[in-house]
């Protein structure tokens, strides 16, 4: 009987209403929107029946199959005359130099069949020592940018060079006759030959013409030059020696990625982050924004921009009292996050390391920089950590000169204006209104590779070459020279700006010969090593760099008066406003000149981990109201977009999403420059922001840069109001903290020095089936692979040295043809990067504290999820760990991922059927699935370089471009390993340590990543793996990775071990106290 | 008997060769002249056109005194010194940019032989080359597989037997008709053929009676059909024997075979990188500046090289536009597999022929010899020993492997044993 029991879905069914009866006969409750996807009327009118359709499908499939059986006709077209140095299939490397007016790096360009495909650092350079920056190794993609102009333009239309030249020469001739005004507005130029070319140009103009060049940097450093003029009498930037500094105190200077010469500094800094070295530097950072440098600091203080001067005076006074010098009038500041204690500590550290201290500031305020000079003078830094004998020629931007030029232009006085290497319509402060000033210039000539914001308003664009198509020489620092040589013939009808200037000055010589003759009469004459110029020149082109000897040491006199005068200018108390904003150049975008480069757009910001956008970064504690309710969303994820805010500066305002950034000084926000380009090309049109009727990536905040006493000011008072609008955010990382796990093992220098390994990096032990504890290495679920024979490739990542810059990520993209997926896909967690840099904030709650407070586990973990208001940060690059007991290998149903006898976890794309079991089973989440055919899908046309004929040229021909539906992951750059082994075999010798390395290891500016054969005892890697600091990520899982990490050692004066180690052995003596109590 | 037939086939050829040789021996001087001309003159001179030096055709007419000509040929610089008054010789020297013709280590007789050859170059050539050609041809036939002839003979024999049996049947039938008369024969014939039943029914009955045989035949047919389908599917993307037409009728047989040019002279990057290159047209000019005419196609095909490099054989100058030659690639590996020539040629010390076949015997058009399938690769990796001896790269590895395979006691290791079957050796 019970079987006849009946269930009803609804009362309607029970009552059997007519509506229900009518509906019950339909399969779907609602009308299917068939028309929506078969919407075309023609389609429904079509007479094709289902049977016919099937016939057609069957026939076309059969036809396609038969057609596919035919032998493909592939043409193979050899050179008519083969260049001697070129062998098909063999890469050539050329030494060259990257300089875009902002970043400088000597590089090696890898070319295949005459196409540049990859950029590495030039290890011969004494300045960069092979270091790179993500903006530098991404620049190879800009060469193949579809949106580059194919030739010169006149009034926005493509014209011949003859036509364009005639227009310029006519205008110049008129100026010569009438005595007109000619101005060159350029980015920082450090080319000696370029300067000579400019001199030729000046000469050719004659005496009647009023001629001047004005240098302008989008992100100005003129405050330092001005300050040095006040204190030393010369507007210069000295050489900073971070490798000599035992204590570094930086006030908002992001010297690891953006300040003056970041590649040089990162290299020097990284060298001294080794706890085993002669010394390990101690790094203090005081800043409002949580910069990359700040996240690497041992001790960081969050300071409002307006209070930076006051804090600086406090430091000065601390040091003055130790030095027995007169104190300055102190200006009070808000003692949030124990700033005064940290300043005291910094002062005593600086004083005890007198002569080895270095204090810098990123401010563009002349007074603050004078104060910095005063402190460095007091610390005897000059002559040791700051070398005034060598001058840095980067960042020559002269803000005052620029402001004067704009007013000249506005007065209509300027007849001819050349705009070279800068984009002031985009990047100049809005108050200057450069755009309207430009309209008043009679003839404006720009040098831009596309009709960007400025070039599109200029009369003529003398389209220059890409730097990889040009010859040039550079002189970034006293005694340091380097050369740029072309690695490909100009792809378009372009001409580099130096050559254009030579042409317009009536010189018949081409720029290459011009450079040669300059070197012949210049540095060749000064050296003695080579007797023939040709051999000198050949060695120069081969090495790419040249270091002149006989550096002069410069005696300096310090003007003490300037310091007290400057201190007096510093306001007594910080601005009492609710919100202060700071504008900063971001690691990937910089000044926005490479905004159309999808690799850079997709590179996550190192600290916030956000891609494809700029945003308002705010401390999470500022994001809630007094009652604790969220004003802006803190936990942002795919389903949880950020909330936006309206930011008002003066009478202008813009809307940006608000992002939680623990560590951002409360009461301040920071917004990245370099976004919101409107005329950069198709990539920037992929953004979710709008400017006018155009889509952009992020919002341009350059117009809000202020002008303070002739220098640009990157801070502003703002008012911020929530709008309630939502905005999607593309970020590959959601987890902010380590939740008490030992993902990044960390200790302090004190603990490291005074305690054995087992205290701060204990071996992991687990109980076996019989309850006997054994080291994890001895517990095996599977048979071991016999890896003792031949090579066993391994990697070591020193977390103390890693600064999180992302050069490795871009290097990996370039080497391994990793597709770009765009913001929308990243938002869905489908980023394809084989190598990611995880960032973890520290939390106030630790396991130990939870136990002490008697918290329950749920409460404890809930609190552990929340980062501190001012946390410490660690970075951890994670790629495939090449486990020797790989969980992915055992679950693949088709054996597409297998183990090599050289210890690598191999991924075979042509075997993969895309079950994704491997990704599910990977504890490191490093496997990436090709959800789309990125090389053909129209969704990715605008972001993916492999889709255009031009962009395809950047692909590495040794690495497969993966198709849809397969897994991919880090291969340990197996193509490089195979190549290195083959070279050794062909040359009858063993593999030399260092000859085989991965793209990430070679890109790393701080040598944090090392790679090699662990079976060869003489290698660096074998030694590093044996080091006390070595541990494996999630070693307790028993995966036995081939990638090893070195415990991060922070130079803080306290005992410290990782929370997990601490929690597993209560009662032991090492006491952990959070830095931010 | 058949075997001896095949052997006997060679006899007339051998005989012909012998005859040609005995005939050509009557023309010794012209033969020597041709040989001497090739050795000493052909690299700088042609008979009917300029090369490095002037055309040699009619040289005797240009020189008044044959003695002077011989002296000039033997040592031109000495001749110029000895005869300062000979304006023609000095003019010639000036005309050719004072390029010196080196003294020739030949005696007067040999010079005369060369001159005789120049006067009548075709006389010796035809016979000599005809002989060579014949020899080459007979070589090829000798190399041919004898089984083909066996098979052919067998088939012919079978056909003959069938024909004979058919004829016997027909004549027996005829005889029967004559004996029995037309009507009776028709009745008998029907009875003999199918005993009055239709063919289909007869087949059915026969099948019913021979179930085992039919089943066996059915299974056999199925197996044959399936294996045909299977091999059809497996041959998709396999282009063994692929021999597309090429823009130039280039014969490897002439170059690598007859002239014994080393493979890597042209395909030099096979030793350096992953690709084995098709040589640039300029490389062809190393030889074809001199060799302007071929045996098979005359000037036509070689002129295509000149067209490509923009060379004018009349003026011996590169003055035309360059036009790359669009060869059709024969050996195509799919993009998903990485293959490196230098790995195999240099490190593996494998002969080109092991994969490409006896290329020196392949005429035009060149074809793909091996299947180039993954199974084919793997098979070789399983069987081939790594050339470890004398390569320091392998020293340590070899010692370790000897230790590992101590029980087997082997000293040589296959590619497989050092990991040569792993996916990421070729797929990345």
What attributes characterize this protein structure?
heterodimer; A: 1077 residues; alpha/beta; Dimethylsulfoxide Reductase, domain 2; Barwin-like endoglucanases; Alpha-Beta Plaits; seven-stranded mixed beta sheet; six-stranded mixed beta barrel; 36 helices; 28% helix; globular; disordered C terminus; B: 428 residues; mainly alpha; Cytochrome Bc1 Complex, Chain D, domain 2; 4 domains; two-stranded antiparallel ribbon; 3 strands; disordered N terminus
Shape of chain A: globular
Summed up, the helix count of chain B is 20
Low-confidence stretches of chain A: 1066-1077
Strand content of chain A: 15-25%
Q: Radius of gyration of chain B, rounded?
A: 34 Å
Q: What structural class do you assign from the helix and strand content of chain B?
A: mainly alpha
Which strand-content bin applies to the residues of chain B? Answer: under 5%
CATH topology of the domain at 746-1064 in chain A: Alpha-Beta Plaits
Shape of chain B: flat
Judged by helices, strands and strand pairing, the structural class of chain A is alpha/beta
The total of beta strands of chain B comes to: 3
Largest interface: chains, residues each: A-B, 51 and 58 residues
What name does the CATH topology of the largest domain in chain B carry?
Cytochrome Bc1 Complex, Chain D, domain 2
Itemize the secondary structure elements and their pairings.
The complex is a heterodimer of chains A (1077) and B (428).
Chain A lengths: L10 H5 L2 H7 L9 H4 L3 H5 L4 H20 L5 E2 L15 E8 L4 E9 L2 E7 L12 H4 L1 H5 L9 E2 L2 E2 L2 H18 L2 E6 L5 H14 L4 E6 L6 H11 L4 E4 L6 E5 L10 H10 L10 E6 L4 H5 L2 E4 L5 H16 L15 H14 L4 E5 L4 H13 L7 E7 L6 H12 L5 E5 L3 H4 L6 H6 L3 E5 L12 E2 L10 E6 L2 E5 L12 H8 L6 H11 L1 H4 L6 H11 L1 E3 L12 H10 L9 E7 L12 H5 L13 E3 L23 E8 L2 E9 L7 E6 L15 E3 L2 E3 L9 E3 L2 E3 L1 E13 L18 E3 H6 L2 H4 L4 E3 L5 E3 L17 E6 L8 H10 L6 H5 L8 E6 L5 H7 L3 H8 L8 E6 L8 H5 L5 E3 L5 E3 L9 H5 L6 E2 L37 E2 L5 H13 L12 H5 L5 E5 L6 H7 L3 E2 L11 E4 L1 E3 L8 H6 L13
Parallel strand pairs in A: 7-8, 7-15, 10-11, 10-13, 11-12, 15-16, 16-17, 21-25, 22-24, 31-44, 34-43
Antiparallel strand pairs in A: 2-3, 3-4, 5-6, 5-17, 9-14, 18-19, 19-20, 21-30, 22-25, 23-24, 23-30, 26-27, 28-29, 32-33, 34-41, 35-36, 37-38, 39-40, 42-43
Helix pairs in contact in A: 9-19, 9-20, 10-15, 13-14, 13-15, 15-23
Chain B lengths: L1 H23 L3 H14 L17 H4 L3 H9 L1 H7 L4 H9 L12 H12 L1 H23 L2 H35 L1 H13 L4 H11 L1 H24 L17 H7 L4 H4 L14 H8 L11 H10 L1 E2 L4 E2 L8 E2 L12 H7 L5 H4 L17 H10 L8 H13 L24
Antiparallel strand pairs in B: 1-2
Helix pairs in contact in B: 1-8, 2-7, 2-8, 4-5, 7-8, 9-10, 15-16
